[in-house]
Every structure is written in structure tokens, then in C-alpha cells.
Design brief:
Elements (H helix, E strand, L loop, with lengths): L12 H17 L9 E4 H5 L1 H13 L3 E5 L8 E7 L2 E7 L5 E5 L13 E3 L5 E2 L6 E2 L5 E3 L20 E2 L1 E2 L4 E4 L7 H6 L5 H4 L8 E10 L3 H6 L7 H4 L4 H4 E10 L2 E8 L19 E7 L3 E5 L3 E9 L6 E9 L5 H31 L4 E4 L4 H15 L1
Antiparallel strand pairs: 1-20, 2-12, 3-4, 3-6, 4-5, 5-10, 7-8, 8-9, 11-12, 13-19, 14-15, 15-16, 16-17, 17-18, 18-19
Bound molecules: FE2/S2 (inorganic) cluster and fe (ii) ion.
The site of fe (ii) ion (FE2) has 5 residues, from loops.
């Protein structure tokens, strides 16, 4: 087993030891954290056009969304771009240290004012279409042939970029997709999970790669790929299952939840002195950030998977981002990250597409077993949030 040496993504030692103790027990007894029994869900509700419209409104447009890692916008002048529910977003760190989220649509005619991520030359956003520039808080800074727009002057708020509420309290960038969303809702979105997240070092994250997928499957089916390890032995026999045990531990935090599974070989820790245990959890910790984001962390990398409803119930848009923490290890991490990406693209996503086709072909119900407690928990949160 690869033993984590330095723990850049380490929560407190006590938390880590408690998780290790639980997972070691689960592996030793050949069990997993379970709910009280199986759950039956209506496929009609799951794929309903009306509920899909409600999901888009209530769970995505009216609920704060996680769009990235705070570590990518840690220093003045840094920025990231993201897309959520088709809305292009740019998040900036201004010279005064404040974080801003803006709709990435130029005030002149709507083109993008930033692409990708990085540090802005001159600390201004610049539209590539006609060259209008904006301060990092969204105010218009300059425009070529300025006199041709008089008397619409700089300072007229119609010339500013649209501001969105944003928070990075948890080490993740959380944005409200509607400008009128109260800041307190965005600040408090991950409140219950915040103590767990703040120890993960997410504010030191650096991007390895990002991907966008349009998937012919309902967003819930894509999300649910990341809520259980029951599928490891069958679907990931040659990939994930060669590295990880499927025994898992699970916990709820408000509407959010977390489960964790260990690297093979972790059972050896049962006989070892706890003082010699690794400083980081020797496996993966998967956080479900309601409604559709998953944050998976290991001792050296983290991954964000954001699943959103597409235009129809049978479609979704999925964004993934892989980050790392230690520059010296960057090259060495690439093969493991590539293995995870391959499993996601060649095993998980095709399974989601199959399940969409299968359920839409007249299945009346789907099941979540007692050994899928996070799936069950999440389905209950989903139902409650949609029905309001
Ligand atoms: S659309 Fe941005 S400067 Fe014209
Ligand atoms: Fe999977």
C-alpha cells in the first residue's frame, strides 16, 4: 500500500484516526455502513418532465452551487472560469483580497471576458471581441472608442459585469446563480460540512485538468455513480477495484453527506500501533455537496464532479476538475488521475447512459440497497428539496 508521507490534504489527526478506526473495523468484519433496509424509488418521479423543471429551478438556480477550488483564486489577480446551468461565470480575487463572482458576459454584447484560469495580466478582465476591460470587481474600466458610447459613461452600472454572490469559506468556491440570492445563503450553504472541509487544504489546490461532458442520462443517475462502492467489484473490476476496498463508512451533514473507502492493504493497520498510522486517510473520502456536486479527496489529489440537469430529463451536463497540492509530485500523480478518468469515462458514464435507457424503457421502480446508505440518504434529500 502506498503510504502517504506528507499530508497536504489532511484533516485533523483526531478526525483521521477516527475514520481509520471505523474503516479498519469494516474491512476486518467484511461489512459496510448500512441503512436499516432497502429503498424503492418511483422511476416515473425520477424521470418526470415536471419534476425535472422543478429540479432545475429549486435545486440549481435557487440553490448555491459549488463551482471550484478556493486555491485557484487564492492570490490577488487570480481567476477561474466555470459554467453552471449554462451560465458562464468568472471568479476573481481583487487586489484588496476580496473574492468576486461575475457573469462571464461582456457588458457591450455578451462575449466572454475571461477563459480558463490563471493570473490576469494588468489585473483586469478583457473582452476578446471589441476590447472592453473591467476591474476585478466587475466595474467597466475602459473601452476602445469611448466617445462612441457617450453619454453612456463608465460608472453607469449598466456597463458593469453582473455580480453574483460568492463565498469561499469552506475552501471551495460557492456561487449563487441569481444575483438576488442573499449572501448569507451562499456563505451558509456548506455550513454543516465546513469543519470537515476546512482541514483538507483545498485552499492550496492547483488545477491538473478540467473536463465537460454532455451525457445522455439524467443528472441524478450520473450523481449516483459517486454515492456507493457496491459497484466497484463488477463495473470497476480492472480499475478502481484493483486499488480500493469496497467496504465503506458513511455520515450525514445536514443535506450533505460523506462516505469513505480505503486502499487495499489498509487492514494491516488493525495490528499496528495507532501512533504509526498514516497522517492522512489511506483511501478516498467522497463528499456529496447537495444537490449535484461530489468532492473526492485522497492524500494527494482531489476531484470535483458536478452533475447538472440538461434541457431534458434524459440529459445532463457534467463538469470534472482534478487538482493536486504538491508541485513536486505533479508528474507522478498523472498516471493515477488518468486511471480515475478512464474509469469515469469508460465505465461509469456508459453505465449511467445504460441505466437511463433501461429505466426509460418502462421500468416502474429502482432500488437502493441497505449497503447503499448514501444513495438512500441523497434520494430522501432530493425528494424533500424538490417537493419543497
Ligand atoms: S462584446 Fe465585449 S467588447 Fe464587444
Ligand atoms: Fe464508479
Amino acid at each position: 500500500m502506498a503510504q502517504p508521507v506528507s499530508p497536504p490534504t489532511d484533516p485533523t489527526r483526531e478526525r483521521t484516526d477516527a475514520l481509520i478506526r471505523r474503516i479498519v473495523d469494516r474491512i476486518a468484519s467484511g461489512t459496510t455502513d448500512e441503512s436499516l433496509g432497502p429503498m424503492v424509488e418511483s422511476v416515473a418521479d425520477f424521470l418526470s418532465v415536471e419534476r425535472h423543471a422543478k429540479e432545475r429551478e429549486r435545486l440549481f438556480l435557487d440553490m448555491p452551487q459549488v463551482v471550484g477550488f478556493a486555491g485557484e483564486v487564492a492570490r490577488p489577480g487570480q481567476f477561474i472560469t466555470a459554467e453552471a446551468m449554462g451560465i458562464p461565470i468568472v471568479v476573481t480575487r481583487a487586489p484588496d483580497g476580496r473574492l468576486h463572482a461575475l457573469v462571464n458576459a461582456c457588458a457591450h454584447r455578451g462575449a466572454r471576458v475571461a477563459q480558463g484560469h490563471g493570473t490576469l495580466a494588468g489585473r483586469r478582465l478583457r473582452c476578446g471581441f471589441h476590447g472592453w476591460t473591467f476591474e476585478l470587481d466587475g466595474r467597466l474600466a475602459s473601452r476602445p472608442s469611448d466617445r462612441c458610447f457617450e453619454p453612456i459613461a463608465a460608472g453607469d452600472t449598466r456597463c458593469d459585469l453582473t455580480r453574483l454572490p460568492v463565498s469561499d469559506r469552506s475552501g471551495l468556491v460557492v456561487v449563487g446563480l441569481r444575483p438576488e440570492m442573499p449572501q448569507a445563503r451562499v456563505d451558509g450553504h456548506l455550513a454543516e460540512l465546513e469543519p470537515e472541509l476546512t482541514g483538507l487544504g483545498l485552499e492550496q489546490a492547483k488545477t491538473l485538468d478540467v473536463q465537460r461532458y454532455e451525457v445522455a442520462a439524467n443528472w441524478k443517475l450520473v450523481s449516483m455513480l459517486s454515492y456507493e462502492s457496491y459497484h466497484f467489484a463488477a463495473l470497476h473490476r480492472e480499475t478502481v477495484a484493483t486499488m480500493f476496498e469496497s467496504h465503506a463508512i458513511a455520515d450525514a451533514f445536514g443535506r450533505h453527506s460523506r462516505w469513505a473507502f480505503a486502499l487495499k492493504g489498509t487492514d494491516a493497520l488493525a495490528k499496528a500501533d495507532p501512533a504509526s498510522w498514516p497522517a492522512s486517510f489511506p483511501g478516498a473520502i467522497s463528499h456529496q455537496l447537495f444537490p449535484g456536486t461530489v468532492l473526492i479527496t485522497t492524500w494527494e489529489v482531489a476531484q470535483l464532479i458536478r452533475s447538472e440537469p440538461g434541457p431534458t430529463p434524459g440529459t445532463s451536463v457534467v463538469h470534472t476538475a482534478n487538482v493536486y497540492f504538491d508541485e513536486a509530485k505533479r508528474e507522478a500523480l498523472i498516471p493515477n488521475v488518468a486511471l480515475g478518468t478512464r474509469a469515469f469515462e469508460e465505465e461509469d458514464l456508459p453505465a449511467a447512459i445504460q441505466t437511463q435507457q433501461g429505466l426509460a424503457a418502462g421500468r416502474k421502480q429502482l432500488f437502493a440497497g441497505a449497503n447503499e446508505p448514501i444513495v438512500q440518504f441523497w434520494l430522501r434529500q432530493w425528494r424533500e428539496a424538490v417537493d419543497g
